[in-house]
Amino acid sequence: MIGAVLAGGRSKRFGGNKLLYRIDGKPLILHTIERLESADEIDEVVIVASPENAEKLKTFGYQVLVDELLVGPIGGIYTALSLGDAFVTAGDMPRIVPEFVDYIIKYFHKSRKAVCVPRWINGHIEPLHAAYSMGFLDIIEEQLALEEYKIKRAIEKVNVCYLAIEKVPPEWRESFFNVNRKDDLRKLGISEPLV
Question: Fewer CB under 10 Å: which end of the chain, C or N?
């Protein structure tokens, strides 16, 4: 199982390239990658980058795939699946819980469904903390042809395994925390981050 870290966003709300912001001496994206690498079910981590981010991210020593589609997360997922089944996450999720990643991947293998995604009781899903099969590429291609770029719409078209978030340990929910604004860094205990 590939661990694919999406790094294509423009960080508009953050006001700078948040993935390269240093937290405790390392760029934000490396915190995400290291957590993902700690999951037993992940064999290899790759970064899916926009063309503008790719060269900088190659310096971290991971394989970097360039998302040439630039249509949001659906394009990043499509790019990642070119390598095989993938657990997909966003580069701005520094609190990923490795045990939760393993739980999702094990369910994915057991279910044999195209996608295994956590879902809240209100129906909201977490598509950037989910496992996807390589076979899901066909559905994404259909969506791209229709210029329908919402990943949720693609997920709704397949046989999907939904994981009830209410049934997992409450502390695992911090896995979904992501950094959108500089204010979010306070939740990580940082008041004055360093570039």
Answer: C
